[in-house]
Amino acid sequence: MALEIKQLMQSRYGAPGLLCFFLLAVGLKARNATCMSAGAVIFVLLMTQA
After folding, report:
1. Mean of the pLDDT values across residues 9-35?
2. What angle do CA 43, 25, 7 make, to 5 degrees?
3. Which of 3, 14, 26, 47 has fewest C-beta within 10 Å?
């Protein structure tokens, strides 16, 4: 499942999509609110451009 999401983000949104996915994944795993927030902000910015 994670591989499919990663491929979708890479193909559709490029490098910012990968950065977003990486920050969200690291933030969730480490329980780091800063990483999760940064990933969420990038995700919202990508969605508003789409």
Report:
1. 85
2. 70
3. 3
